[in-house]
Design a protein that fits this description.
4-stranded mixed β-sheet, single chain, alpha/beta, 4 helices
Length: 222
């Protein structure tokens, strides 16, 4: 399994992915991380799935807007696993629309080449009416480890893992990752713009931890 790039739209799609974060706090149409992601609301049933923007766009907001044709296209890709599948062939080029816990229970061992995670940062934020409250560093580390560890059995021996985080949660996330994987680098994703403030400096970057299952020389080929 690899990554596909649409040469016309420059869209990057992953063969199978979750439409949202691992625990269902938000739902996003998978796009390149270097582009702003289109936030969507997913209804309980596939037939009722709709795409909704939650607030007016700022003048410099580059959020991608889906056309009606794209709505239909992505809706046809939705899939919900209800029983164990011996292979991932039926999941290729589909989007798993369910909680991470229920999905991974149906997937076989060593089936994932690339894992990209963008969990809620350790700050208060509302995702689709669900509120994520900040935790102590120790509690956040425990919370992260509880859902991160079950994913490890899905990784192939040659798999790569990328985990997004901010400066407050970066060291905590790294501590959990290095217990199970080989950390290769910390990537700094620099935003094109920052925000001014009167009381403190505002961050214009975030961390992305790059790790691999193997300890050998990694390959960056998609």
């Amino acid at each position: 399994m690899g990554i596909r790039r649409d040469r016309l739209s420059n869209e990057i799609s992953i063969p199978f992915s979750w439409l949202g974060d691992p625990l269902g706090y938000s739902c996003n149409v998978c796009r390149a991380k270097t582009q702003l992601m289109s936030r969507v609301a997913i209804a309980p049933s596939f037939e009722d799935a709709t795409v909704t923007f939650f607030r007016p766009r700022a003048n410099r907001n580059r959020t991608l807007v889906l056309s009606e044709a794209e709505h239909y296209r992505y809706r046809q890709r939705l899939l919900r696993l209800t029983q164990s599948c011996p292979t991932v062939a039926d999941c290729l080029d589909r989007t798993l629309n369910q909680s991470m816990q229920s999905a991974i229970a149906c997937l076989p061992d060593s089936c994932v080449d690339l894992l990209i995670l963008d969990p809620p940062y350790n700050r208060r934020k509302t995702f689709n009416a669900r509120v994520f409250n900040p935790k102590s560093p120790a509690d956040y580390e425990t919370w992260f480890a509880e859902w991160f560890t079950p994913l490890l059995r899905l990784l192939k021996p040659t798999a790569s893992v990328y985990v997004c985080c901010d400066w407050q949660s970066s060291s905590t996330v790294a501590a959990v990752i290095e217990q199970h994987l080989t950390i290769r680098n910390r990537i700094t994703w620099e935003r094109e713009k920052g925000r001014g403030a009167k009381r403190n400096w505002k961050n214009a970057s975030e961390d992305i931890w790059f790790a691999t299952v193997s300890r050998g020389i990694p390959s960056l080929r998609a």
